[in-house]
Design goal:
Blueprint (H helix, E strand, L loop, with lengths): L2 E2 H8 L2 E3 L5 E2 L1 E2 L9 E5 L15 E5 L11 E5 L2 H16 L4 E2 L4 E2 L4 E2 L4 E2 L4 E2 L4 E2 L4 E2 L4 E2 L4 E2 L4 E2 L4 E2 L4 E2 L4 E2 L4 E4 L4 E3 L5 E3 L5 E4 L4 E2 L4 E3 L5 E4 L4 E2 L4 E2 L4 E2 L4 E2 L4 E2 L4 E2 L4 E2 L4 E2 L4 E2 L4 E2 L4 E2 L8 E3 L4 E2 H12 L1 H15 L1
Parallel strand pairs: 4-5, 5-6, 6-7, 8-11, 9-12, 10-13, 11-14, 12-15, 13-16, 14-17, 15-18, 16-19, 17-20, 18-21, 19-24, 20-25, 21-26, 24-27, 25-28, 26-29, 27-30, 28-31, 29-32, 30-33, 31-34, 32-35, 33-36, 34-37, 35-38, 37-39
Antiparallel strand pairs: 1-3, 2-7, 22-23, 39-40
């Protein structure tokens, strides 16, 4: 899709300096800009690129005054970085602006949906499912029975939403996500075999949640696994049965949270973190990447390591670990002198 500089300026509340009718169709870094692309300049380190860029349009701050002739069309705004971010959001909205029901697809008996639904090819919608307005469901997606999906939510290709799941408004579920699969529950027998414990709960995803590709969220044994509003989950995360993740918490990729653990609000959890089951993690907790959390953590704490220590203790311990060989040598010398 091509769009003129003057149209972009109206979206961003900016002023065009140059050819207002010039059109662009792609976004690019300023140093990699080509004809037909739009870029931005906010960092002074990159000022020299504006004199050589081939981008057709560059968004700049109103305060920018070129020292040399500029061939590209400029759009002057209060904050170029924020304006470009707004343009990216606008571009993404336009790109995802689809509606209609493609075939083949299946909408089962009793399922209802709102206005502006997009349902891609080879999708399945289960019985009695309720889908809100402006929902986008991309091809090869499965939505089970009795699911509820709120307004403006996007399910990307290949997502699997098991029965009874509830997903709120303005959520994004990326490709390959599985929500509502069975929790890992087995009862051991005397002969070493296992009986499966039925998992009859569900998963509740509140509003404004984003779930990265390949992430799995298990249904509760009883009750609900809950991902509360504003949570952001990265790719390839495992959330076990009956976990409760508090508002606006963010978790980076390849982390795992074991069953029945409660995580508070506004926590920041790094990649490859492992959290054992039945813990309580307070609000505003920071857990560094690759930490192993084996005990509950108080609000406003920061931990690192495996098993996780307070961040300050970890740094002190690590400084000793780095000098372990020298410390051992010194101890050997002391032992010889004592003996």
């Amino acid at each position: 899709m091509k769009i003129a500089a003057e149209q972009i300026a109206s979206v961003l509340g900016g002023e065009v300096v140059g050819d207002a009718t010039i059109q662009v169709s792609t976004l690019a870094k300023i140093e990699e800009g080509q004809e037909g692309s739009i870029s931005f300049l906010s960092n002074p380190k990159y000022v020299h690129h504006i004199y050589t860029t081939k981008a057709s349009v560059v968004i700049v701050n109103k305060t920018f005054q070129p020292e040399y002739p500029v061939s590209t069309t400029m759009i002057k705004v209060d904050d170029a970085y924020k304006a470009f971010s707004k343009l990216l959001e606008y571009y993404n909205q336009v790109k995802l602006m689809k509606s209609g029901i493609e075939q083949p697809s299946v909408i089962s008996e009793g399922a209802v949906y709102g206005e502006e639904l997009y349902l891609g090819s080879f999708c399945y919608i289960g019985k009695n499912t309720k889908i809100g307005n402006n929902v986008k469901i991309y091809p090869n997606t499965f939505v089970g029975d009795n699911v509820i999906i709120g307004d403006n939510t996007i399910l990307f290709a290949g997502a699997r939403i098991y029965s009874e799941t509830v997903i709120g408004n303005n959520c994004t579920v990326h490709a390959g996500v599985i929500i509502g699969s069975d929790g890992f529950g087995f009862a051991p027998n005397a002969d070493g075999t296992y009986n499966k414990v039925p998992q009859i709960g569900n998963v509740i995803i509140e509003d404004n949640v984003e779930i990265g590709a390949g992430t799995t969220i298990d249904r509760a044994t009883l009750g609900s696994t809950i991902i509360r509003k504003g949570v952001k989950l990265d790719n390839q995360i495992q959330v076990a049965h009956n976990v409760d993740i508090g508002e606006n918490t963010v978790i980076a990729s390849q982390s795992g949270v074991a069953g029945s653990t409660k995580i508070g609000k506004n926590c920041m959890i790094g990649g490859q973190v492992g959290i054992v089951g039945h813990l309580v993690i307070g609000d505003n907790v920071k857990i560094q990447a690759q930490s192993g959390v084996t005990k509950s953590l108080e609000s406003n704490s920061a931990v690192q390591g495996s098993p996780a220590l307070s961040h300050a203790d970890f740094l002190r311990s690590y400084s000793h670990f780095r000098n372990l060989s020298k410390i051992a040598e010194d101890l050997e010398k002391v032992k010889k002198n004592v003996i």
